[in-house]
Design a protein that fits this description.
The protein is about 40% helix and about 15% strand. By secondary structure, the chain is an alpha/beta fold. α6 packs across α7 (about 190-195), α8 crosses α9 (about 245-255) and α10 (about 265-275) packs across α11.
Amino acid sequence: MKRRRLVLPIVLGAVALIVVVAFLLGRPADDHVFFETLRNDRPLVIAHRGGALLWPENTLVAFDGAVELGSDVLEMDIFRTADGVPVVIHDPTVDRTTDGTGLVSSFTLERLKRLDAGYRFIPAGAVTNPYRGEGVTIPTLREVFEAFPDEHMIVEIKENDTEAADAVVELVREFNRTEHTLLGSFHHDVLVRVRSVAPEIATHGSEKELTTLLVMAWLLLDRAYSPAYEAVLVPQRSGPIPVTTRRFISAARRRNLFVAPWTINDPDDMKMLIGRGADGLITDRPDLALEIVREE
């Protein structure tokens, strides 16, 4: 009987010891120059696809408009063509945003450039397509880097392919953009590849990694967490589960992680997330977000 009475205290003591050791071993993310070279007097405005509700998304027109507004960071998405060129487009097909049809990967760059990337875009409140037939094309990542050499960018690698990661890393290094580019992906293996071949480039957490952080935040164990990334880019909810709670944002920031929810287009949501401590807003309406962050 006495031995049985000793089991519970021993188990609880072992658990407590493990927790203490984990807290002592947990390390916050290292500082990264990507964030050090950005302004820090207010939350950052990150133009999602360049401002997808203002201009044809993921085009030079959109990125130019976002820069003219004063957006802090340009966000974009990458697929590769049939001849292996990284191009800036969100979907695996060209159907939604151009006058063409088919997989991006089925087009050579030459054929892709014939498509009208302004064909389907209609601004809010308009009834016509002001960019249709105006020569708006799907840009290559090289073209974006050439056009905006000094802008900070978040580049999302959409393919679940480490070769895509290698191609993007190669361009980042070619243009000496390691201090101005953050690479992301929904695919954990792609992010692991980026970190292994280019540890100098900032990344955000994968869904797998951020789920772990979310659970540890719920359990108040976030100080035991050691992130392998520098940024937390998350939706407000994941299905029925709230993500951008005050507890989660605080936990991420304690780990020295930059927190930017997406895709925040409602002014009330913008104000709420700023109040909870978000470091940035990823938005299709950088015009509205800039007004709000300058007021806060």
